[in-house]
Amino acid sequence: MRIESLIIFENDEIVAVSKPSGLLTIPDRHDNELASLSGMLKKKYGHIYTVHRIDRDTSGLVIFAKNEVMHKYLSQLFESRDVEKYYLGLVNGDLPLPEGSVNAGIMEHPVQRGKMVTNAKGRPSLTDYAVEEAFGVYSLVRFRIHTGRTHQIRVHMKHLGHPIAVDELYGTATPVLLSAIKKKFRLGKFTEEERPLLQRLALHAWKLKFTGPDGKVVELEAPLPKDMQAVLQQLRKHKKA
Known about the structure:
The chain is an alpha+beta fold. It has five helices and twelve strands. The protein has helices at 37-45, 68-79, 152-160, 178-181, 226-237, and strands spanning 7-10, 14-19, 49-50, 59-65, 84-92, 99-103, 106-108, 116-118, 126-134, 138-145, 203-211, 217-221.
């Protein structure tokens, strides 16, 4: 994987990258630095400054600063919630309302390490959602998060009873299969097992919007990856009339 193929936008101060699902934003204790987005960027630029991160399993937009001044500026914007953060995700089933908000505190699971739960005693967390397209078995939903809690969208969608598709932690690990979408699905003559359309978390960090130091509005978008586009193509094709 070449880092150049992941860069969406860059200037003298920032570089915006579309992170593939499965790649860490920054290395954890057990990983080789080059097996992370920041490590790949450091190899290219020498110095790079991490501003924010997204989950390993989530694909999409991540911004890095190229100098300390921009790093400080962007970090303060994220901290003061002056960055608009939008995601796109496939959720299981049809949501009862076309749009709404989930305002439910999030805290660490009392027993399961690395898992979060909604709880009145948790840290305040707010997610807005709007259904873009409904297909019965799945829905394409646009999210805007006003807070940046760990696994926020995933936890809030579980809270609503419509977890993100292929979310082993908060829903089910069942991949998205054509047989679940196409009514009269048949395996090919020489095919023993169906190949999944999508077997990773169906969540994508889509857009970031903020005001730059020069007062101009910056709006950056990471297009939906091919695997999620392929699922949508099949869902649209086989949508019940």
